[in-house]
Amino acid sequence: MAVDVVEMADRLWRGEVDPWSEYHPVGHLGGMAEICQGVAFVPTLANVTAITTDDGLVLIDTGSEPVAPLIHTELRRWSDQRLNTAVFSHGHIDHVFGVGVWEAESAEKGWAPPVVIAHEAIRDRFDRYIATAGYNQVINRRQFGFKNLIWPTAYRYPDETYRAGRPLDVGGVHLDLVHEKGETDDHTVSWFADKRVLCCGDLFIFASPNAGNPQKVQRYPREWAQALRRMLTLDAEYLLPGHGLPVMGSDRVAQALGGTAELLESLVEQTLEIMNNGGRLDEAIHSVEVPSHLAGLSYLRPIYDEPEFIVHNIWRLYGGWWDGNPATLKPAPEVALASEVAALAGGPGALAARALELLNQPAPTAAGPDTEGALRLAGHLAEMAWLADPSDPAIADARQRVFTTRAEHATSTMAKGVFNWAARTSSPED
């Protein structure tokens, strides 16, 4: 059954959609919607926006390699124009691997090949991806559970790059391309003033911003908030994100941009206050909070990244990698520490047994049972027991049960991915 993208977007804004059963911002949806005359939006693993001109199409992003043919098919139902220009909003692989389908079509039909434009920093990103292909393959398999994912080592580098900003004129259509930092250092925001259409890449994703990914390189939350504030001044009618669904109506666009900026600003301010007062990372992790008036908003739910992870990234950006605990500056090997603690506790089995108890016995607090706190403790104990004796089937089973439960209670893709990976790898045969 065809998806009504506009209706789903309205329901998502109203909080009527369950992100884990009905629609997730980094899930595959499909379908297409003409947002306004001459502008189409295709929601997939990463979204694509198409704009018609008198000299062919302009695409903002091109999608990932697996869904590129689907995107092409969807857009061919809407327009038969050749692809003139593709703009990469940033260099993440789910946004930049769809050009080949269009290039093949152009070659077949004798059309001029499309031109690809991106910010200059994207070249360094692609170079880094090639240098760290093995690591990226490991962490993306872990984060998303894609067991057979192969990280690419060949990229479509842009034909043209720019530094701060660039006007783009194609077939009577004018776009302003502007560089911003946020999730990445190579983001391009595309502003189509005549239609009041704002393509923001991943600076808005209909979820808590991806500013803290625990397995990826540095994010820039303060600069991200500043970028959102600048976008607010444009008074856009349509906000077309890199993930998630369109935000339609200037009032909603203003709320989405302003609310996301306020969240990031608050997390930065709270974390810096703790740092400036000599606190440790542990204090920041467990005391920085999302402002209560933002916590329940449909477009800021922690379903992909989490504010807690953003705190880590803020600390790394402003304070380096050390967390303030003197024991962790030059730590003992994890296995040695786990073995020592296990010996003091009466053996690895004792740690595993206590971890299982915590699954069903939440730790008490002044406010009542603390299920999340108990699960965090259970995770520490289960991991220590497993490090001390990974060959014990009972300990492996306990670790699997603990991290399966942690995954079930987690709200974000990132936490679920890591906890499910831990559960899967508990037994030696896995």
Keywords:
about 425 residues, Metallo-beta-lactamase, Chain A, seven-stranded mixed beta sheet, 15 helices, about 45% helix, about 15% strand
What is shown here, in short?
With 430 residues, the chain is an alpha/beta fold. It contains 15 helices and 15 strands.
Write structural notes for this entry:
With 430 residues, the protein is an alpha/beta fold. The protein has two domains: 5-263, Metallo-beta-lactamase, Chain A (4-Layer Sandwich), CATH 3.60.15; 332-424, Serine Threonine Protein Phosphatase 5, Tetratricopeptide repeat (Alpha Horseshoe), CATH 1.25.40.880. The chain is built from 15 helices and 15 strands. It has a seven-stranded mixed beta sheet, with helices on one face. A six-stranded mixed beta sheet has the order 8-9-10-11-12-13. Strands 14-15 form a two-stranded antiparallel sheet. Strand 10 and strand 11 form a beta hairpin. It is elongated, with a radius of gyration of 23 Å. It starts with a helix and ends in a 6-residue tail after the last helix.
CATH class of the largest domain: Alpha Beta
- What is the CA-atom radius of gyration, in angstroms? 23 Å
Count of beta strands: 15
As for the CATH topology of the largest domain, it is Metallo-beta-lactamase, Chain A
